[in-house]
Design brief:
2 domains, binds adenosine-5'-diphosphate, amino-acid biosynthesis, globular, Carbamate kinase, 5-stranded mixed beta sheet, ATP-binding, Archaeosine Trna-guanine Transglycosylase, Chain: A, domain 4, binds ligand VHF, EC 2.7.2.11
């Protein structure tokens, strides 16, 4: 969707609501506000038959409130305990509020691990599509109770973008505590101007965004911009807007000039490459010589062992690695056909020697081009 007038035709929309908005300044869930968003979402579901998936933060903030904690704990286990307590309140609230509008809800808790395993990714997709067909509103959050650094998304903006990719949504609406993306953080510079619309390719955006300062949210505008970039890979348009704006959802869908519209003017990736591009955890790095770097970038070829000059990390077959040039600039990332130890043996050698070097051969390519995405 390249123009706001097209939003009225959106069939599938992901709505992300951040902690900074959900909780009334650390005093627990803001029930009147949540009730109002539920009314708006239910309206779109009933009147326009729009499929809506809600990605809701707030479990940690609500848990802190229920446990009487004034400041966000530093220890991971305390955060996880708060999330487990708070998620109960979050889900109970959504369930009872949507019930008033005759809509069923479903709780989905995900970790990054769930989406990086291709089989689990496809299972999550089938389940969510089935729920949407049944007219249910899925309510998604990160599975904070089990997520450690290794397997976490880190912030719900990224989670919402990966769900938009998973379901090939038309639109991602990120509701937050600001009117949208400003030229500078408006909490630091109240004169900063709101960006109404920008291409997702606009390199100036990166300099405008800063971190979260609310003490409740995570990631600030940096992760929202990154989420919009990720979402554009499935052709999904992103709007970042204030959840405090009256009737924000129906007005955005009607094409009103609210918030910041980040136009996805890039060609969408094939589904498998999109899944690959959404992987956040790299297991190693391959250093390429000039020739290999060029054929990857310019000719879209597979990576052969002969083009690799050095290997960093300890990865297994099928894991994700970065491919960098001699200066360390990332060119691509992809799933390797050989482990780190095997790669160290076959690097700089022609593929015809793999069998004599290792005693077996899985594939002639180190990374097949179907499993490779350019940076
Ligand atoms: N350029 C910017 N425009 C708007 N907000 C920004 C910008 N840079 C940083 N921010 C900060 O991002 C915050 C919103 O992100 P965050 O606190 O993570 O909210 P949420 O909980 O909704 O994800 C704002 O309150 C603001 O302080
Ligand atoms: N899973 C966490 C989400 C934390 C988070 O990303 O918050 P936010 O930046 O407000 O979207 C929670 O529910 O508290």
């Amino acid at each position: 969707m390249q123009d706001r007038t097209e939003f009225a035709r959106a069939r599938r929309v992901i709505v992300k609501i951040g902690s900074a908005l959900l909780t009334s300044s650390g005093r627990g869930l803001d029930l009147p506000a949540i009730s109002d968003w539920v009314r708006q979402i239910a309206g779109l579901r009933h009147t326009q038959k729009m499929e809506i998936v809600l990605v809701s933060s707030g479990s940690v903030a609500e848990g802190m409130c229920r446990l009487g904690w004034k400041t966000r704990p530093r220890s991971l286990h305390q955060l996880q305990a708060a999330a487990a307590v708070g998620q109960m309140g979050l889900i109970r609230t959504y369930e009872s509020l949507f019930q008033h509008h005759n809509l069923r809800t479903a709780q989905i808790l995900l970790t990054h691990d769930d989406l990086s395993d291709r089989q689990r990714y496809l299972n999550a997709r089938s389940t969510m599509l089935t729920l949407l067909e049944l007219g249910v509103v899925p309510v998604i959050n990160e599975n904070d109770t089990v997520a450690n650094e290794e397997i976490r998304f880190g912030d719900n903006d990224t989670l919402a973008a990966l769900v938009a990719n998973l379901l090939e949504a038309d639109l991602l609406v990120i509701l937050t505590d600001q009117k949208g993306l400003y030229e500078r953080d408006p909490t630091l510079d109240p004169t900063a101007k709101l960006v109404h619309q920008a291409s997702i390719n606009d390199s100036r955006l990166g300099e405008m965004v800063g971190e979260s300062r609310s003490g409740l949210g995570r990631g600030g505008m940096i992760t929202k911009l990154r989420a919009a970039r990720l979402a554009s890979r499935s052709g999904t348009a992103t709007v970042i807007a204030s959840g405090r704006e009256h009737d924000v959802m129906p007005r955005i869908i009607a094409g009103e000039n609210l918030g910041t519209f980040l136009v996805p003017d890039v060609s969408p990736m094939l589904a498998r490459k999109r899944w690959l591009a959404g992987q956040l955890k790299l297991k190693g790095t391959l250093y390429l010589d000039e020739g290999a770097a060029r054929v990857l970038k310019e000719d879209g070829k597979s990576l052969l062992p002969i083009g690799v000059t050095a290997v960093e990390g300890d990865f297994r077959r099928g894991e994700l690695v970065a491919c960098v040039d001699a200066e360390g600039r990332e060119i691509a990332r992809g799933l390797v056909n050989y482990s780190a130890d095997e790669t160290r043996i076959i690097m700089r050698r022609p593929s015809s020697q793999i069998e004599s070097l290792l005693g077996y051969v899985d594939e002639p390519e180190l990374i097949h081009r179907d499993n490779l995405v350019l940076a």
